[in-house]
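Thread: S8 family serine peptidase, structure

OP (GT): Posting the sequence first so everyone is looking at the same thing. Length is 461 residues per the record. Can we get the structure tokens written out before standup tomorrow? I want them in the notebook alongside the other entries.
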Amino acid sequence: MNLKFIGLSILMLASALAAPAENTSYRYRVQLKDKSQTTYSLDRPQEFLSARSIERRNRQGLKIDSTDLPVCAAYIRQLESQGGKFISASKWNNTVLMQTNSEQTAQRFLINPFVESVRKVWTSPDSVPPRPADRKKEVDNKWNEQEDIYGVAADQIRMHRGDSIHKAGFRGKGIEIAVIDAGFYNVDAMKIFRHAHILGTKDFVNPQSDIYAEHNHGMKVFSCLAADAPHVMTGTAPEAGFWLLRSEDNDSEQLAEEDNWAAAVEFADSVGADIVNTSLGYFSFNDATDNYTYRELDGHTSLMSASASMAAKKGMLVVCSAGNSGASTWKKITPPADAENILTVGAIDAMGLNAPFSSVGNTTDGRVKPDVMAIGMHTAVVGTNGGTAYANGTSFAAPVFCGLAACLWQACPWLNVFELIDIIHKASDRYAYPDNIYGYGVTDIWKAFQLARKLKEENGK
């Protein structure tokens, strides 16, 4: 708080503090009751889903249902006529995110018979730091070669016998992975990504921004998957296709980021992505009244968790970091890590010991979390100069494992998402005695491949 005007009277100070900034804007999550005025039909899914998205459902025997129908455009137009600006929508949750310049506008939204509830989820920050004007100058693309073909990433791949599945010819080709993160700083200037198959980008925080000028967290996450420089660094799925999506607003911590994420994962579904990697999680916010409690780690209370749980019903695998709160007072996993039918990944070191910061489970309803563990201490990543570096966090354990899951699914396309998760559990070293720290443990991805082949023989797939 700026206290340079100490001479002001208490009354004037209180008035100044109470008044909103002149250009303050707000965003509200509007929960809708139905989709009765939709112009779309389940008989014409090609109007709102890509051919690849429809094929993924058909391959796994999943029906297209009302949750796939877009939010009613007529409802959005009505909210706009009442002073709102449309930001995004979640068809799975039947919500829309609307921006206003007045808190009173939200009261008008409630008058509509199609509106169930309205919740403020964002207030514009006081300022947003400028992005670097000459960011690419930070990249020198210098690195040192290693003896191992995997370079600095050897430990994090070989721990899971990922080298075996790679040698068998499965490096993620044909699998599409959506990476939802905070930005992919300078990915477009780094030679270590020159072979990466980037299918597209989209920013759900600020559509006008340059996604390669935003935070470097997503770049480091992406490197665990997509780096492809032999003897320097190799990602776990270097031949996969990637959608780079931004949902995290690093300039504030507000509930609207969950709406951004919900829109991003639905976009990933609509374009046909097979897997989503997200190294994001939230339990506390700028407004403490929005903070989650342990009892809300049920897989559905958080909008992100509800969306992640829904993704499995659409045939997508969501791989999520457990969170880095293990050594803090919170300790527990952070939503959406509590979602149902996803893979939540905790962090270990190269010796297989859990990282003290790695968040622990279980969920409120007793499901085992985390699911599996991967190296998240001293994880090899690409640094901001385009060379190699190391980082700590479940944020990096998740993509390390995500890429291996992509290779497994490439090798075993007959698996549906639920079978894929089950086989990964069974191929992990603590499957017989899971706990709330390691979950099912460290997965042997080659063993998972053998189990999947056996399942195919038994089921005659």
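GT: Both are above now. Quick notes for whoever picks this up: Confidence is low (pLDDT under 50) at residues 1-21. The radius of gyration is 23 Å.
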